Amino acid sequence: MIDSKQVNFTIVPDEDSGGPRTYANFCAIAHTPFDFTLTFCEVQPLSEKDVRDAQVQNVVRAPVRARLVVPVQFVPNMIAALQEHLRVYSESYSNVGWNKGGEPVH
Asked: What are the average pLDDT values for consecutive 10-residue runs of the chain, which has 106 residues?
Protein backbone atom coordinates (compact mmCIF):
# COMPACT_ATOMS: atom_id res chain seq x y z
CA MET A 1 0.00 0.00 0.00
CA ILE A 2 1.28 3.48 -0.90
CA ASP A 3 1.47 6.04 1.90
CA SER A 4 -0.91 8.91 1.07
CA LYS A 5 1.07 11.73 2.73
CA GLN A 6 0.93 15.06 0.92
CA VAL A 7 4.23 16.46 -0.30
CA ASN A 8 4.57 20.16 -1.15
CA PHE A 9 7.23 21.24 -3.62
CA THR A 10 8.10 24.05 -6.01
CA ILE A 11 9.01 23.44 -9.64
CA VAL A 12 11.80 25.67 -10.96
CA PRO A 13 13.41 25.77 -14.42
CA ASP A 14 16.71 23.91 -14.67
CA GLU A 15 18.71 26.62 -16.42
CA ASP A 16 21.56 24.18 -17.13
CA SER A 17 19.32 21.94 -19.26
CA GLY A 18 17.74 24.67 -21.38
CA GLY A 19 18.74 25.77 -24.84
CA PRO A 20 19.18 29.32 -26.07
CA ARG A 21 16.45 31.90 -25.58
CA THR A 22 14.06 32.39 -28.48
CA TYR A 23 12.72 35.86 -29.27
CA ALA A 24 9.11 36.34 -30.38
CA ASN A 25 7.03 39.51 -30.65
CA PHE A 26 3.73 37.97 -31.79
CA CYS A 27 1.60 35.15 -30.43
CA ALA A 28 -1.30 33.52 -32.24
CA ILE A 29 -3.65 31.51 -30.02
CA ALA A 30 -5.93 28.63 -30.99
CA HIS A 31 -7.80 26.05 -28.93
CA THR A 32 -9.55 22.72 -29.04
CA PRO A 33 -11.87 21.32 -26.35
CA PHE A 34 -8.74 19.82 -24.74
CA ASP A 35 -5.86 22.27 -25.12
CA PHE A 36 -4.60 25.70 -26.15
CA THR A 37 -1.92 26.19 -28.80
CA LEU A 38 0.29 29.27 -28.55
CA THR A 39 2.28 29.91 -31.71
CA PHE A 40 5.08 32.42 -31.19
CA CYS A 41 6.43 34.28 -34.24
CA GLU A 42 9.03 36.94 -34.92
CA VAL A 43 7.67 39.80 -37.00
CA GLN A 44 10.34 41.95 -38.64
CA PRO A 45 9.74 45.45 -40.01
CA LEU A 46 8.11 45.19 -43.42
CA SER A 47 9.75 46.33 -46.64
CA GLU A 48 7.78 48.41 -49.13
CA LYS A 49 7.26 45.25 -51.21
CA ASP A 50 5.99 43.37 -48.12
CA VAL A 51 3.51 46.19 -47.44
CA ARG A 52 2.26 46.14 -51.05
CA ASP A 53 1.91 42.33 -50.94
CA ALA A 54 0.05 42.55 -47.62
CA GLN A 55 -2.36 45.11 -49.03
CA VAL A 56 -3.22 42.71 -51.88
CA GLN A 57 -3.27 39.44 -49.92
CA ASN A 58 -4.28 40.78 -46.46
CA VAL A 59 -1.63 38.43 -45.04
CA VAL A 60 1.84 38.90 -43.58
CA ARG A 61 3.78 35.69 -43.01
CA ALA A 62 6.08 35.53 -40.00
CA PRO A 63 8.48 32.72 -39.09
CA VAL A 64 7.31 30.48 -36.25
CA ARG A 65 9.85 30.47 -33.41
CA ALA A 66 8.01 28.12 -31.04
CA ARG A 67 4.67 26.36 -30.74
CA LEU A 68 3.42 25.37 -27.29
CA VAL A 69 0.43 23.16 -26.65
CA VAL A 70 -0.86 23.31 -23.08
CA PRO A 71 -3.84 21.64 -21.41
CA VAL A 72 -6.90 23.80 -20.77
CA GLN A 73 -6.39 23.36 -17.00
CA PHE A 74 -2.99 25.10 -17.28
CA VAL A 75 -4.36 28.31 -18.87
CA PRO A 76 -6.01 30.02 -15.82
CA ASN A 77 -2.81 29.71 -13.77
CA MET A 78 -0.74 30.98 -16.70
CA ILE A 79 -3.04 34.00 -17.09
CA ALA A 80 -2.88 34.73 -13.37
CA ALA A 81 0.93 34.49 -13.38
CA LEU A 82 1.18 36.81 -16.41
CA GLN A 83 -1.17 39.33 -14.77
CA GLU A 84 0.88 39.29 -11.57
CA HIS A 85 4.16 39.73 -13.45
CA LEU A 86 2.66 42.53 -15.53
CA ARG A 87 1.48 44.26 -12.35
CA VAL A 88 4.95 44.05 -10.80
CA TYR A 89 6.57 45.11 -14.08
CA SER A 90 4.32 48.15 -14.47
CA GLU A 91 5.00 49.22 -10.87
CA SER A 92 8.75 48.76 -11.31
CA TYR A 93 9.14 50.36 -14.73
CA SER A 94 6.32 52.91 -14.88
CA ASN A 95 8.76 55.67 -15.83
CA VAL A 96 10.31 53.81 -18.80
CA GLY A 97 7.72 55.04 -21.27
CA TRP A 98 5.69 51.85 -21.61
CA ASN A 99 2.11 52.89 -22.40
CA LYS A 100 -0.09 50.42 -20.55
CA GLY A 101 -3.28 52.06 -21.87
CA GLY A 102 -2.22 52.04 -25.51
CA GLU A 103 -3.14 49.88 -28.44
CA PRO A 104 -2.27 46.16 -28.42
CA VAL A 105 1.11 45.26 -29.91
CA HIS A 106 -0.41 42.73 -32.30
From this structure: 80 79 94 97 91 90 94 97 94 69 55
